[in-house]
Amino acid sequence: MRKFKHSSPHTVRFHLIRGRVLLSLGQYDQAIDDFRSALRLDWRHEQAAYWLNKATRAIPHADGTRSLS
């Protein structure tokens, strides 16, 4: 984690790691923002797209169900 502490916040890796941490904490909107930031830096980054999709699907709906799409 020490190496990550000194990472530039302007790298795809930074946003992916922070996004995954936020997702694991249930902070879906913030995680989605990080994955989108990663994709803005590299729009073809497959892991960023994968985690953005995963975070978007993880958001609970108001009626207690999750989207299947």
UniProtKB/TrEMBL annotation:
<keyword id="KW-0677">Repeat</keyword>
<protein>
    <submittedName>
        <fullName>Tetratricopeptide repeat protein</fullName>
    </submittedName>
</protein>
<dbReference type="InterPro" id="IPR011990">
    <property type="entry name" value="TPR-like_helical_dom_sf"/>
</dbReference>
<dbReference type="InterPro" id="IPR013105">
    <property type="entry name" value="TPR_2"/>
</dbReference>
<keyword id="KW-0802">TPR repeat</keyword>
<dbReference type="Pfam" id="PF07719">
    <property type="entry name" value="TPR_2"/>
</dbReference>
<dbReference type="InterPro" id="IPR019734">
    <property type="entry name" value="TPR_rpt"/>
</dbReference>
<feature type="repeat" description="TPR">
    <location>
        <begin position="12"/>
        <end position="45"/>
    </location>
</feature>
